[in-house]
Design goal:
Largest sheet: 3 strands, mixed
Oligomer: single chain
Shape: flat
Strand content: 25-35%
Distance between the termini: 81 Å
Strand order of the largest sheet: 1-9-8
Helix content: 10-25%
Number of helices: 7
Radius of gyration: 33 Å
Length: 305
């Protein structure tokens, strides 16, 4: 059974596009969840508007009672995640006023699928992924290997502060030491308050009075570093070792991690079966019947079998 989009918006079938906009705006203000409204009715109004505001979809709907698959913004039983509003023309809601808003911020706040403006996310540098090849023996017994790579590291001269040695930090003039910039934007749903990280202090709230000459005030310096990696015994091909804090450094945040993916060379004599080592030994039929002694190579040295 097809839905009656005209009834949903409360307009006649000959309603103009402007009347459709006004009807949707009224329902959106009435039912949007941020004001304690009915989320389901808000979705239904959105679906109706997405069809009736589009000339081709509206013509198909008037003829066949349907605007095609996925025409409504919430069709197909999918749960709303902050999107689905790309087809809207919100220009008519401005009423000639200077209205500026981001739909991702607005509807993300309503349904929990968009960006959060009130929570300060912890900053972390990028993780680094590298590959390390081991011999079969090294994978069995483990040991220590050295990894050398070039990456963004904390400047040793200023200890990551970005300030020249002997100078102090001062409050960021752009954010007043808050580390974040709050902006109030007007929308057809009312004022929307958003926050973003301050680009000047990068969220720290402090900036150096004089910049470090080594890192130019960034607190980060690209250089070559070596890390000792302890390889655990009995590691398998394809497993990874993580070095916490050995990834890319980030000013005002924690460094990322270093992930080392292990690749084990094949051995001509041995292969692993769980925690066991397996090898083959060719013997004479007479020795199999009567018994004999053979020298057998192992990873610990030769033995007599």
């Amino acid at each position: 059974m097809s839905k009656d989009y005209y009834k949903t918006l409360g307009v006649n079938k000959d309603a103009s596009k402007e009347d459709v906009k006004k009807a949707f705006r009224k329902l959106a203000m009435q039912h949007h969840p941020d004001k304690g409204g009915n989320a389901e009715k808000f979705k239904e109004a959105n679906e109706a508007y997405s069809v009736l505001s589009d000339d081709s979809k509206r013509a198909q709907y008037d003829t066949y009672g349907s605007a095609g698959p996925g025409a409504g913004g919430f069709s197909g039983g999918q749960q709303y995640q902050g999107g689905g509003f790309e087809g809207f023309d919100f220009s008519g809601f401005q009423g000639g006023q200077n209205v500026d808003f981001d739909l991702g911020d607005i509807f993300g706040e309503f349904f929990g699928g968009g960006r959060s403006s009130g929570r300060r996310a912890s900053k972390k540098g990028k993780d680094i992924h590298v590959d390390l090849e081991l011999s079969f023996s090294e994978s069995v017994f483990g040991g220590e290997k050295t990894i050398t790579l070039t990456k963004n590291s904390k400047c040793k001269v200023c200890d990551g502060s970005g300030a020249k040695s002997g100078t102090s930090m001062q409050t960021c003039h752009n954010c007043g030491g808050q580390g974040r910039i709050r902006e109030t934007k007007r929308s057809f749903l009312g004022p929307i308050v958003t926050e973003k990280i301050c680009e000047v202090c990068e969220g720290g709230g402090k900036i150096p009075k004089e910049k470090c000459s080594s890192c130019s005030g960034s607190g980060i310096f690209k250089k070559e570093e070596s890390f000792a990696v302890n390889i655990p015994a009995d590691i398998n091909d394809g497993e990874s070792v993580r070095l916490s804090g050995a990834g890319e450094s980030l000013k005002g945040g924690n460094p990322g991690d270093l992930y080392i993916k292990i690749h084990v060379k094949k051995d001509p004599l041995f292969k692993k079966d769980g925690h066991n080592l397996v090898t083959e030994l060719n013997i004479k039929l007479s020795d199999a019947v009567l018994g004999a002694k053979y020298n057998l190579k192992t990873l610990d040295g030769d033995i007599e079998l």
